[in-house]
Design a protein that fits this description.
The structure holds two protein chains of two kinds.
Chain A: H1 2-25, H2 58-92, H3 96-111, H4 114-125, H5 129-156, H6 159-166, H7 171-207, H8 219-228, H9 235-269
Helix pairs in contact in A: 1-2, 1-9, 2-5, 2-7, 2-9, 3-5, 4-5, 5-7, 7-8, 7-9, 8-9
Chain B: E1 2-13, E2 20-31, E3 35-39, H1 46-53, E4 61-66, E5 69-70, H2 80-85, E6 86-89, H3 93-96, H4 103-112, H5 114-120, H6 125-135, H7 152-164, E7 170-174, H8 182-199, E8 202-207, H9 210-216, E9 219-224, E10 227-233, H10 234-239, H11 244-251, H12 256-259
Parallel strand pairs in B: 3-8, 3-9, 6-7, 7-8
Antiparallel strand pairs in B: 1-2, 1-4, 4-5, 9-10
Classes of the chains: A mainly alpha, B alpha/beta.
Chain lengths: 270, 260
């Protein structure tokens, strides 16, 4: 039952990744070439998904847009994991007052809306894919920190950590050799869920004009552009919207599926 | 010669509701080569006591000395003398072996630590791991496998092999056979006995099961509510328990023959 969800998720994510990879070597048309004689074409031939208000082939833009979405997801989630996981693991072995300080700072970060942070950063540094990634990454740190901390606490309470201490293993080695491998499945689930959120956030930022610049194809930007022509050519809004929805669904299904597949093992560990 | 000197040991677990006194002004001496049983019902402070002796916990008050050197109040990096000579086997090997490590790395863990290595001198690590795996009766390919690929008894053998790896003088077994099936228990007990004999180990054997302690340890102390209520030769504890609590523990041992 749950395995089927995982499989569907993997297929969806696989399709998006394949599309992004193919776009590096082949797209039906140039994703940036303007063709003013054929604007706002309905789906058909040769523009399978139609064309936008500047006559750019929509399928090509969708394919290249997958690149932006995955790029932002990888960097933002990577940033969040690289900052959040070590902090979470470290906070699990800190004395209680120090852990409290870390956790309260985490709460403050968590309470601060990601979108607002992105607008702030875009205002200070200029809107770009990079500022969007950093903003989304910072906003995702608290989830990683909390998950890593909770997992680390349960691993640190286990007898094999006690045995490691009795063997003279240092705290750093315990964190690297025992804690990290045992919380890796938890982190994997969080990566998948955060990836979905990051892609959604990037689309929202690009839609608002605070993310990927208009010269680079991105799904959020396409949605924004299509809005103006919603009543003349609604298909132009449907394709990027569907891409975002399917990608987010795919990563969420993978996350949920992984959680259910890995949970029994985790319980046995704890 | 006394190896462990425990003086006035006290351990209080603080919690928001009320403090729990796990150990109260406890004195204990363990001699080199002694086989000492520590018995008592669950919650009597047995595990707390041996964890403090192995410097895995800090006492609220009191001191532990090992071979003339203080163990309590000493930073971890200066405990090499203890870590290399005192090793522990825990109750449940499912919990005491990291599920994501191969048996080889689990057994090698005490040999990797810098503070332990400083005490041990030169040796071939892979060779040592093979030797101890063989010594506890595991097949030569056992090192490549993960804990879940072994049976319960074999897992406890891995835990014992890990404890033996640095060639310790003292083995602390904390309920080391209690989680095992009855059929496997005897095998592991015999293995422990053989190893203690062959290596001339000092054994501190914690158990709630008096019959197992009688089998293994000539001497025993009885713990109740964090205090030693009786100590002496195990045979005397059995035949003439002077404390009412010991008598109850002895009476609690199932005796099949009398029922038949």
């Amino acid at each position: 039952m749950k395995r089927r969800e995982l499989r569907v998720g993997i297929v969806l994510v696989g399709l998006i990744v394949a599309m992004a990879l193919v776009s590096f070597v082949w797209t039906p048309f140039s994703p940036t070439a303007v063709n003013s004689t054929l604007p706002l074409q309905p789906p058909g031939w040769p523009h399978v998904l139609g064309s936008d208000h500047m006559g750019i082939d929509t399928l090509s833009r969708i394919m290249v847009g997958a690149r932006s979405a995955l790029y932002v997801g990888v960097i933002a989630v990577g940033l969040a994991a690289v900052v959040g996981v070590p902090l979470g693991v470290a906070s699990a072995s800190l004395p209680r007052w120090a852990a409290e300080v870390v956790l309260r700072i985490t709460d403050i970060t968590y309470a601060f809306p990601a979108l607002l942070l992105a607008i702030l950063l875009a205002g200070a540094l200029g809107a770009s894919t990079e500022t969007a990634m950093v903003a989304i990454g910072i906003a995702s740190v608290p989830q990683f920190l909390r998950i890593a901390r909770a997992g680390a606490m349960s691993v640190l309470a286990s007898d094999f950590v006690l045995a490691a201490k009795a063997s003279g293993t240092t705290r750093l080695r315990i964190a690297v050799l025992h804690v990290l491998p045992n919380i890796a499945p938890l982190i994997g689930v969080q990566v998948s869920v955060s990836f979905a959120l990051a892609i959604l956030a990037e689309a929202a930022l690009s839609y608002l004009g605070l993310g990927t610049p208009s010269t680079v194809p991105s799904w959020g930007r396409m949605l924004g552009d299509a809005q103006t022509y919603l009543f003349t050519q609604p298909a132009q809004a449907i394709w990027p919207g569907l891409s975002i929805a399917l990608t987010v669904l795919g990563f969420n299904l993978v996350g949920d599926g992984l959680r259910d597949v890995l949970d029994p093992q985790l319980r046995e560990v704890a | 010669m006394s190896l462990f000197e425990v003086r006035g040991l006290r351990r209080v677990y603080r919690s928001s509701r009320q403090d729990v006194i796990a150990l109260e002004s406890l004195d204990l001496t363990v001699h080199a080569g002694q086989r000492l049983g520590i018995v008592g019902e669950s919650g009597s402070g047995k595990s707390t006591l041996v964890r403090l002796m192995a410097a895995l916990d800090r006492p609220t008050a009191g001191t532990v000395m090992f071979d003339g050197l203080p163990v309590t109040g000493v930073p971890e990096r200066r405990l090499g003398f203890l870590r290399s000579r005192v090793q522990m086997v825990f109750q449940d090997p499912r919990g005491s072996l990291d599920p994501r490590m191969r048996a080889r790395d689990i057994v090698a863990e005490p040999l990797v630590s810098p503070i332990v290595r400083r005490e041990l001198g030169e040796f071939d690590r892979a060779q040592r791991v093979r030797e101890v795996l063989d010594e506890v009766g595991l097949p030569p390919d056992a090192g490549d496998r993960y804990p879940h690929e072994f049976s319960g008894g074999q897992r406890q053998r891995i835990a014992i092999a890990r404890a033996l790896a640095p060639n310790p003088d003292v083995l602390i077994a904390d309920e080391a056979v209690s989680a095992l099936d009855v059929s496997v228990r005897a095998q592991v007990l015999n293995l422990l006995m053989r190893l203690v004999d062959d290596r001339g180990l000092t054994l501190i054997f914690v158990s709630h099961d008096l019959s197992v302690v009688r089998h293994l340890c000539p001497d025993a102390v009885v713990l109740q509510a964090g205090r030693i209520v009786e100590a002496g030769p195990t045979s005397a504890l059995f035949s003439q328990p002077s404390h009412e609590y010991t008598a109850r523990l002895v009476a609690a041992i199932p005796r099949f023959r009398s029922r038949l």
